[in-house]
Amino acid sequence: MWIIWSKNVAAHPSGKSDRNIVRLRKKGMTQKPIIVWFRRDLRTSDHPALFYASETGAPIIPLYIDETDCERSEGAASRLWLHHSLNALQADLSPMIIRRGEAQSVLEKLVEETDASAVYWNRRYGQDRDRDAAIKEALSARGVEAKSFNGALLSEPWEVKTKSGSGYYKVFSPYWRAVLAQVLVPPPLPKPEIKIFDGQIESLSVDDLGLLPTRPDWGSKMMPHWQVGEVGAKTALSNFLDGSVSRYKDDRNMADKPRGTSRLSPHLAFGEISPRQIWHATKDRDVDGAKFLSEIGWREFSYNLLYHNPNLRTENFKADFNAFPWAKNDGFLEAWQRGQTGYPFVDAGMRELWETGYMHNRVRMVAASFLIKHLMIDWREGERWFWDTLFDADPANNTASWQWVAGSGADAAPYFRIFNPFGQGEKFDPNGDYVRRWVPELKHMPNKFIHQPWEAPELVLMESGVKLGENYPRPLVDHKQARETALSAYQAMRG
């Protein structure tokens, strides 16, 4: 269904006024409008494209395009989050125009319809950056100003160079030291005073995009865990800085402490908050936020890698791994996806993902290592599953992290580092609280056996209501044997 946004549209969907939005009637406008193209930057504060467009005094046309020609379409979980994030943004930027199609065609058509003088947007850094460059060139050829800005990173990927100045950093620690020494992070931009264009423009509604799952509706169970949108992002940051940031260095790995992490990653992935806002909010507090900010640094490092290696999602960073003998086992892959591997710590993580669209970071590493090094399945299969099921699926972070675990990436964990799935559980979920929450079949198991139920005596299994191979699976593979197989494959690859 098309919606016609015009001067007769209600002032605000919520019924509340917003002093930052001033509508101009079309005949009173003296300047041509500027289109501000929103992508993964669904906020109004510290939004360079929106801020600098508003600074011109021109009326603004906020635009979101459901792009049919982007390098990679959003996963199912991301589209669910996107639905709610667009609704939140539209409540703040009404009317926001929504269209679907090839980005360049949509922009050129909207320019013709509105006589817009310019299109502003915030940059992307993967393969889509080449398409963005072509769009900029095409608009400029039509006499339309096209400007892009950094709205996603603390620094541009080309700004931080090695000491020799001849290349980019491929190891995180020296990269992050260079960022801390070289980069002066500018303060976040305020939310601007926005004059919304008041001409007639056709628009889809958010519902028209069909972002919500319906058959079945697996998404409704996830949303109570989150407050989507810019307000939710700022609330999450404030709560974290008021509370657990001081314990972050120790608690971030503890799966049984769900509030030991910030849970900001989905908000960052959709640009509901910027890394500059996080940086300065943390620095302004009298807290030890160095470890927390270094995690923001890993995200920066991942974009550094993606920018210089735009095929990172599909190609091993280390070419040696092109010869690795990956196994093809659809049954094992499905068991991993469903949280039915027989290793409770891994299964708990995969089920948390299915229920909430999120997984604790420590458990992500263990689950990823299990897929790659116990089941010998190509890391790209795991990357695809996370892309489809994680709310915080990020084009740089997701790929760089999977390659890190696989040993095929830059500054990667060595392949022979193989996480012990039950040892990790015993260390980072010592009382089994995390497992019991997400694997309720094991909720009555004593702590001693919660991470290795196959080691429990038959009487303990009976008293706990656990029937291995019936209501909870036996391990897909033996840990020791799987480890030896993986190491042998690695040695063969190197040889």
Query: What's the name of the CATH homologous superfamily of the largest domain?
Result: DNA Cyclobutane Dipyrimidine Photolyase, subunit A, domain 3
- Biggest pleated sheet: 5 strands, parallel
Q: What is the strand tally? A: 9
Q: What percentage of amino acids are in beta strands?
A: 5-15%
In the predicted model, the low-confidence regions spanning at least 5 consecutive residues are 1-29
Termini gap:
60 Å
The overall average pLDDT, rounded, is 92
The CATH architecture of the largest domain comes to Orthogonal Bundle
Individual helix count: 19
> Globular, elongated, flat, extended or rod-shaped: what is the shape?
globular
Strands of the widest sheet, in order across it, are: 5-4-3-6-7
- CATH top level of the largest domain is Mainly Alpha
Helix content: 40-55%
Number of domains: 3
CATH fold-level topology of the largest domain: DNA Cyclobutane Dipyrimidine Photolyase, subunit A, domain 3
